[in-house]
Amino acid sequence: MRQNKSALFGKLEIPFPYRSSDIELPDHFPKSLTLPLLSRWRTLNVRRAPSRISIYSLRERDILPLGDLDIPLIFLTRNSLRFIPSFLEHYRALGVTRFLCVDDQSSDGTRERLLKEDDVEVFGSDVRYREAKGGGLWREALVRMFGTQRWYLNVDCDEYFVYDQYETRKLPELIRKLEAEGIYHCPAPMIDFYPENTIQSADFGGSGSNMPWHTANMFDASGYRLFRTTSGMLMSGGPRDRIMDRPDVHDELMKYPLVYVDYEIGLSVSIHKPWPFTRNFSPIIGSLLHFKFFNETEDLVVEAINDNQYFKGSRSYIRMLGAIQEGKLNYLVSDISVPYQGSKQMAELGFFKSLF
């Protein structure tokens, strides 16, 4: 018999967003936990394991080192051309100065598009995503190449990091506030966005002026749950969880996109739980706007399944395809759906706390 999520991930479960009238919520989870023996063993073995994956630059010029004032962003990509213009525009506006990318053998023009951008370092690899341990070893290789003892953003192409007043307050300001508060791993829940009509009607063209939330502008304002694990926080909920009715199966929706990296393995242990784990219990300061639902969703899900590079045989994509074929994901709006209006709205709804 399967255990429920509370049994699997500890006793402390709280509703999310933080705004609530029926429960007094803690400001954050404990910052320090005693790791059980298995978790300690896994951490030590990860730290001692030699890196086995190399990457190579796809540019003819020399690789440019990072400067002290650079804000670097690490991302992995495969066939993400429709996101590249808005992705680069969003993060440049936040203050990112360098993009460090490993392209996983794209065939849709993504690689060629990125090579046109002077602030993007593009790398290739002789192995695929799965063999690189879900891209973790590629991230480690990038950190080894560009250096530790600095802040990195670490996101996917369909994830757009936001925080209170991000429209006017840039990343250097946020980082200074995080350091003043002693926060070195910035948790951010992934909030799935979807169109106000059917997903088949949502055509995201991908031009630089068209942000994905202009096409898929709705999100669930409530219905999420936070859990404490031994190595970080976990969140479940959102439209997939709501529509697909899976009480014992949840996607991991908590990530740590902004991280101070002390060690080369800091980003390679898990994209959902960076190392050291004891830093993973800070207040939630931002969110990742996450975009999976457009008119191309079924084709992209089928491609991901056939590519067979994702966790446990692309299990989550197989479930998603079944839900699409049953018509469950055609129309995702419900009575808890709201249109996106910016960082002030997200902060008022309780999706993140403000440091400003």
Give a written overview of the molecule.
With 356 residues, this protein is α/β, with parallel strands linked by helices. The protein has a single domain (5-18, 52-60, 67-349), classed as Alpha-Beta Complex (Spore Coat Polysaccharide Biosynthesis Protein SpsA, Chain A), CATH 3.90.550. It contains ten helices and 14 strands. Strands 2, 3, 4, 5, 6, 7, 8, 9, 12, 13 and 14 form an eleven-stranded mixed β-sheet that branches. A three-stranded antiparallel β-sheet has the order 1-10-11, with no helix packed on it. Helix 8 (297-307) packs antiparallel against helix 9 (311-325). 40% of the residues are buried.
Concise synopsis of the structure shown:
By secondary structure, this protein is an alpha/beta fold. It contains ten helices and 14 strands.
Provide the succession of SSEs: HEHEEHEHEHEEHEEEEHEEHHEH
Task: State the end-to-end distance.
Answer: 47 Å
Structural class: alpha/beta
Q: Give the amount of beta strand, in percent.
A: 15-25%
Number of strands: 14
* Low-pLDDT segments: 1-11, 20-25, 32-38
Quick tags:
disordered N terminus, 14 strands, globular, 11-stranded mixed beta sheet, alpha/beta, 356 residues, Spore Coat Polysaccharide Biosynthesis Protein SpsA, Chain A, single chain
